[in-house]
Amino acid sequence: MARAAVPGGLMGRLDWRVARLAGHRDETPTARTLLLDVPGWPGHLAGQHVDVRLTAQDGYRAERPYSLAAPSGGDRVELTVQRIGDGEVSPFLTEEMRIGDPFELRGPIGGWFVWRPADPAPVLLIAGGSGIVPLRAMLRAREEVGSRAPFRLIYSVRTPEDVYYADELRTPRPGVDVRLVYTRKAPDGARTAPGRLGLAELNSHGWPAEFAPNCFVCGPTGFVETVADLLLALGHDARRVRTERFGPA
Length: 249
Ligand SMILES: Cc1cc2nc3c(=O)[nH]c(=O)nc-3n(C[C@H](O)[C@H](O)[C@H](O)COP(=O)(O)OP(=O)(O)OC[C@H]3O[C@@H](n4cnc5c(N)ncnc54)[C@H](O)[C@@H]3O)c2cc1C
What we know:
Blueprint: E1 17-28, E2 31-37, E3 49-55, E4 61-67, E5 76-82, H1 90-96, E6 102-109, E7 123-128, H2 132-145, E8 151-157, H3 166-170, E9 176-182, H4 199-205, E10 214-219, H5 221-233, E11 241-245
Parallel strand pairs: 7-8, 7-10, 8-9, 10-11
Antiparallel strand pairs: 1-2, 1-6, 2-5, 3-4, 3-6
This protein binds flavin-adenine dinucleotide.
Protein backbone atom coordinates (compact mmCIF):
# COMPACT_ATOMS: atom_id res chain seq x y z
CA MET A 1 0.00 0.00 0.00
CA ALA A 2 1.38 3.42 -0.93
CA ARG A 3 2.01 5.82 1.92
CA ALA A 4 2.89 9.50 1.76
CA ALA A 5 6.51 10.31 2.60
CA VAL A 6 6.95 12.39 5.74
CA PRO A 7 8.76 15.61 4.83
CA GLY A 8 11.75 16.04 7.12
CA GLY A 9 10.82 12.46 8.10
CA LEU A 10 11.42 11.90 11.76
CA MET A 11 9.61 8.71 12.64
CA GLY A 12 7.08 8.03 9.89
CA ARG A 13 7.26 5.21 7.34
CA LEU A 14 8.84 6.35 4.12
CA ASP A 15 8.30 5.23 0.57
CA TRP A 16 11.11 4.09 -1.68
CA ARG A 17 11.82 6.55 -4.48
CA VAL A 18 13.74 6.08 -7.69
CA ALA A 19 17.00 8.05 -7.75
CA ARG A 20 19.22 8.44 -10.81
CA LEU A 21 22.90 9.18 -10.88
CA ALA A 22 23.30 12.62 -12.48
CA GLY A 23 27.03 13.11 -11.89
CA HIS A 24 29.91 12.29 -9.60
CA ARG A 25 33.12 13.73 -8.20
CA ASP A 26 36.01 11.85 -6.63
CA GLU A 27 36.91 13.22 -3.21
CA THR A 28 39.84 10.87 -2.53
CA PRO A 29 41.18 7.77 -4.31
CA THR A 30 38.53 5.74 -2.44
CA ALA A 31 35.60 8.11 -1.86
CA ARG A 32 33.15 9.46 -4.39
CA THR A 33 30.39 12.07 -4.18
CA LEU A 34 27.25 11.02 -6.05
CA LEU A 35 24.93 13.70 -7.39
CA LEU A 36 21.45 12.22 -7.58
CA ASP A 37 18.19 13.33 -9.11
CA VAL A 38 15.29 12.27 -6.91
CA PRO A 39 12.00 13.55 -8.36
CA GLY A 40 9.63 14.73 -5.63
CA TRP A 41 12.31 14.85 -2.92
CA PRO A 42 10.59 16.48 0.11
CA GLY A 43 13.68 18.30 1.44
CA HIS A 44 15.78 17.55 4.52
CA LEU A 45 17.81 18.94 7.39
CA ALA A 46 21.61 18.80 7.52
CA GLY A 47 22.62 15.66 9.42
CA GLN A 48 19.82 13.40 8.17
CA HIS A 49 20.47 10.29 6.11
CA VAL A 50 18.79 8.06 3.54
CA ASP A 51 18.58 4.33 3.02
CA VAL A 52 19.88 3.13 -0.35
CA ARG A 53 18.53 -0.14 -1.76
CA LEU A 54 20.12 -2.07 -4.63
CA THR A 55 18.34 -4.95 -6.31
CA ALA A 56 20.25 -7.52 -8.39
CA GLN A 57 18.77 -9.16 -11.48
CA ASP A 58 17.99 -12.30 -9.49
CA GLY A 59 16.00 -10.20 -7.01
CA TYR A 60 18.67 -10.18 -4.25
CA ARG A 61 18.53 -6.92 -2.33
CA ALA A 62 21.04 -5.01 -0.21
CA GLU A 63 20.24 -1.90 1.81
CA ARG A 64 22.61 0.56 3.55
CA PRO A 65 22.23 3.99 5.19
CA TYR A 66 24.14 7.00 3.76
CA SER A 67 24.24 10.55 5.13
CA LEU A 68 23.06 13.46 3.03
CA ALA A 69 26.23 15.33 2.11
CA ALA A 70 24.69 18.70 1.22
CA PRO A 71 21.76 20.84 2.34
CA SER A 72 18.38 20.48 0.73
CA GLY A 73 18.18 21.81 -2.84
CA GLY A 74 15.15 20.85 -4.90
CA ASP A 75 15.24 17.34 -6.38
CA ARG A 76 19.05 17.12 -6.15
CA VAL A 77 20.57 15.00 -3.40
CA GLU A 78 24.28 14.42 -2.69
CA LEU A 79 25.87 11.42 -0.99
CA THR A 80 29.56 10.73 -0.45
CA VAL A 81 30.49 7.08 -0.22
CA GLN A 82 33.74 5.58 1.06
CA ARG A 83 34.63 2.40 -0.80
CA ILE A 84 35.12 -0.51 1.60
CA GLY A 85 37.33 -3.07 -0.18
CA ASP A 86 35.32 -6.19 0.62
CA GLY A 87 32.00 -4.36 0.90
CA GLU A 88 28.80 -5.32 -0.85
CA VAL A 89 27.24 -1.94 -1.60
CA SER A 90 29.95 0.74 -1.45
CA PRO A 91 32.13 -0.66 -4.30
CA PHE A 92 29.07 -0.71 -6.56
CA LEU A 93 28.13 2.89 -5.70
CA THR A 94 31.66 4.22 -6.13
CA GLU A 95 32.92 2.19 -9.09
CA GLU A 96 30.19 0.54 -11.10
CA MET A 97 27.26 2.91 -11.15
CA ARG A 98 26.99 4.89 -14.41
CA ILE A 99 25.31 8.23 -15.16
CA GLY A 100 21.55 7.71 -15.56
CA ASP A 101 21.53 4.42 -13.63
CA PRO A 102 18.49 4.10 -11.35
CA PHE A 103 18.37 2.72 -7.83
CA GLU A 104 16.07 3.09 -4.84
CA LEU A 105 16.37 5.48 -1.95
CA ARG A 106 14.14 6.45 0.97
CA GLY A 107 14.32 9.30 3.43
CA PRO A 108 15.08 11.70 4.88
CA ILE A 109 15.66 9.79 8.11
CA GLY A 110 16.66 10.99 11.59
CA GLY A 111 15.59 13.87 13.80
CA TRP A 112 18.29 13.95 16.51
CA PHE A 113 21.60 14.21 14.65
CA VAL A 114 20.54 17.40 12.86
CA TRP A 115 21.60 21.03 12.90
CA ARG A 116 18.69 23.46 12.83
CA PRO A 117 19.55 26.73 11.08
CA ALA A 118 17.62 28.87 13.60
CA ASP A 119 19.84 27.68 16.47
CA PRO A 120 22.44 30.39 17.27
CA ALA A 121 24.46 28.23 19.74
CA PRO A 122 28.12 27.50 18.97
CA VAL A 123 28.69 24.23 17.16
CA LEU A 124 31.53 21.75 17.53
CA LEU A 125 31.81 19.24 14.68
CA ILE A 126 34.14 16.28 15.14
CA ALA A 127 34.63 13.86 12.26
CA GLY A 128 36.65 10.69 11.77
CA GLY A 129 37.17 9.69 8.11
CA SER A 130 33.89 9.47 6.18
CA GLY A 131 32.13 10.85 9.28
CA ILE A 132 32.75 14.26 7.73
CA VAL A 133 29.81 13.72 5.33
CA PRO A 134 26.83 14.91 7.45
CA LEU A 135 29.03 17.56 9.12
CA ARG A 136 29.87 19.00 5.71
CA ALA A 137 26.12 19.29 5.08
CA MET A 138 25.88 21.32 8.33
CA LEU A 139 28.73 23.63 7.25
CA ARG A 140 27.10 24.13 3.87
CA ALA A 141 23.68 24.74 5.45
CA ARG A 142 25.18 27.37 7.78
CA GLU A 143 26.57 29.20 4.78
CA GLU A 144 23.42 28.93 2.71
CA VAL A 145 21.16 30.43 5.37
CA GLY A 146 23.71 33.08 6.40
CA SER A 147 23.82 31.81 10.00
CA ARG A 148 26.29 33.50 12.33
CA ALA A 149 26.48 30.56 14.74
CA PRO A 150 30.21 30.04 15.33
CA PHE A 151 31.36 26.62 14.06
CA ARG A 152 34.51 24.66 14.81
CA LEU A 153 35.39 21.51 12.93
CA ILE A 154 37.99 18.98 14.08
CA TYR A 155 38.52 16.41 11.32
CA SER A 156 40.62 13.32 11.90
CA VAL A 157 42.05 11.62 8.80
CA ARG A 158 44.85 9.14 8.22
CA THR A 159 46.83 11.14 5.64
CA PRO A 160 46.47 14.39 3.63
CA GLU A 161 45.22 12.29 0.67
CA ASP A 162 42.22 11.16 2.73
CA VAL A 163 40.67 14.62 3.22
CA TYR A 164 37.18 14.89 1.68
CA TYR A 165 35.97 18.26 0.34
CA ALA A 166 39.57 19.51 0.62
CA ASP A 167 39.13 22.73 -1.40
CA GLU A 168 35.97 23.67 0.43
CA LEU A 169 37.50 23.11 3.85
CA ARG A 170 40.61 25.09 2.90
CA THR A 171 38.55 28.16 1.93
CA PRO A 172 38.45 30.57 4.89
CA ARG A 173 34.95 31.42 6.12
CA PRO A 174 34.18 33.97 8.84
CA GLY A 175 33.01 32.22 11.99
CA VAL A 176 34.26 28.78 10.92
CA ASP A 177 37.50 27.22 12.24
CA VAL A 178 38.75 24.02 10.65
CA ARG A 179 41.42 21.87 12.27
CA LEU A 180 42.77 18.71 10.63
CA VAL A 181 44.30 15.95 12.75
CA TYR A 182 46.43 13.39 10.86
CA THR A 183 46.72 9.98 12.44
CA ARG A 184 49.28 8.29 10.13
CA LYS A 185 51.02 10.88 7.93
CA ALA A 186 51.04 14.65 8.34
CA PRO A 187 51.59 17.02 5.38
CA ASP A 188 55.15 18.10 4.62
CA GLY A 189 56.19 20.91 6.94
CA ALA A 190 53.46 20.20 9.52
CA ARG A 191 54.35 21.37 13.02
CA THR A 192 52.62 18.47 14.73
CA ALA A 193 53.53 14.80 14.35
CA PRO A 194 50.75 12.41 13.31
CA GLY A 195 48.73 11.05 16.22
CA ARG A 196 45.26 10.26 17.46
CA LEU A 197 42.77 12.89 18.39
CA GLY A 198 42.91 13.38 22.16
CA LEU A 199 42.09 15.74 25.01
CA ALA A 200 44.81 18.19 23.94
CA GLU A 201 43.22 18.80 20.49
CA LEU A 202 39.73 19.01 21.93
CA ASN A 203 40.95 21.54 24.49
CA SER A 204 42.83 23.64 21.96
CA HIS A 205 40.47 23.47 18.99
CA GLY A 206 37.04 22.75 20.46
CA TRP A 207 34.77 25.02 22.48
CA PRO A 208 35.00 25.18 26.28
CA ALA A 209 32.08 23.34 27.92
CA GLU A 210 30.90 26.64 29.50
CA PHE A 211 30.00 27.91 26.02
CA ALA A 212 27.39 25.10 25.87
CA PRO A 213 28.09 24.18 22.22
CA ASN A 214 26.06 21.65 20.31
CA CYS A 215 28.54 18.85 19.60
CA PHE A 216 28.13 16.53 16.61
CA VAL A 217 30.49 13.55 16.47
CA CYS A 218 30.50 11.19 13.49
CA GLY A 219 32.72 8.39 12.20
CA PRO A 220 33.66 4.78 12.91
CA THR A 221 32.10 3.38 16.09
CA GLY A 222 35.31 3.29 18.17
CA PHE A 223 36.23 6.85 17.19
CA VAL A 224 32.79 8.19 18.09
CA GLU A 225 32.74 6.45 21.47
CA THR A 226 36.22 7.68 22.38
CA VAL A 227 35.48 11.27 21.40
CA ALA A 228 32.09 11.31 23.16
CA ASP A 229 33.79 10.07 26.37
CA LEU A 230 36.44 12.79 26.07
CA LEU A 231 33.79 15.48 25.61
CA LEU A 232 31.94 14.28 28.70
CA ALA A 233 35.24 14.21 30.64
CA LEU A 234 35.77 17.84 29.59
CA GLY A 235 32.41 18.73 31.15
CA HIS A 236 30.18 18.92 28.06
CA ASP A 237 26.50 18.30 28.76
CA ALA A 238 25.57 14.80 27.51
CA ARG A 239 22.32 16.22 26.08
CA ARG A 240 24.37 18.38 23.73
CA VAL A 241 26.67 15.62 22.51
CA ARG A 242 25.04 14.03 19.47
CA THR A 243 26.65 11.04 17.83
CA GLU A 244 26.33 9.08 14.59
CA ARG A 245 28.20 5.77 14.17
CA PHE A 246 28.99 4.66 10.63
CA GLY A 247 30.29 1.18 11.34
CA PRO A 248 33.26 -0.74 12.65
CA ALA A 249 36.30 1.04 14.04
C1 LIG B 1 23.40 6.53 9.74
C2 LIG B 1 24.55 6.07 8.86
C3 LIG B 1 25.05 6.91 7.89
C4 LIG B 1 26.10 6.49 7.06
N1 LIG B 1 26.60 7.38 6.16
C5 LIG B 1 27.65 7.01 5.39
C6 LIG B 1 28.22 7.95 4.46
O1 LIG B 1 27.78 9.11 4.34
N2 LIG B 1 29.27 7.53 3.71
C7 LIG B 1 29.78 6.25 3.81
O2 LIG B 1 30.72 5.92 3.08
N3 LIG B 1 29.26 5.36 4.69
C8 LIG B 1 28.21 5.70 5.46
N4 LIG B 1 27.68 4.79 6.35
C9 LIG B 1 28.18 3.38 6.30
C10 LIG B 1 27.37 2.62 5.23
O3 LIG B 1 26.04 2.47 5.64
C11 LIG B 1 27.92 1.19 4.98
O4 LIG B 1 28.04 0.53 6.22
C12 LIG B 1 29.26 1.19 4.28
O5 LIG B 1 29.17 1.84 3.01
C13 LIG B 1 29.75 -0.28 4.04
O6 LIG B 1 28.79 -0.95 3.28
P1 LIG B 1 29.25 -2.12 2.30
O7 LIG B 1 28.01 -2.83 1.84
O8 LIG B 1 30.18 -1.62 1.26
O9 LIG B 1 30.09 -3.08 3.27
P2 LIG B 1 29.53 -4.40 4.00
O10 LIG B 1 29.36 -5.49 2.99
O11 LIG B 1 28.37 -4.04 4.86
O12 LIG B 1 30.75 -4.73 4.96
C14 LIG B 1 32.01 -5.24 4.46
C15 LIG B 1 33.06 -5.22 5.54
O13 LIG B 1 33.38 -3.87 5.88
C16 LIG B 1 33.13 -3.60 7.24
N5 LIG B 1 32.49 -2.27 7.29
C17 LIG B 1 31.18 -1.98 7.14
N6 LIG B 1 30.97 -0.65 7.25
C18 LIG B 1 32.18 -0.09 7.44
C19 LIG B 1 32.60 1.24 7.65
N7 LIG B 1 31.74 2.30 7.63
N8 LIG B 1 33.94 1.44 7.83
C20 LIG B 1 34.81 0.42 7.84
N9 LIG B 1 34.46 -0.87 7.67
C21 LIG B 1 33.16 -1.12 7.48
C22 LIG B 1 32.19 -4.71 7.69
O14 LIG B 1 32.34 -5.00 9.07
C23 LIG B 1 32.63 -5.87 6.84
O15 LIG B 1 33.76 -6.48 7.39
C24 LIG B 1 26.65 5.20 7.20
C25 LIG B 1 26.14 4.34 8.20
C26 LIG B 1 25.12 4.78 9.03
C27 LIG B 1 24.61 3.84 10.11
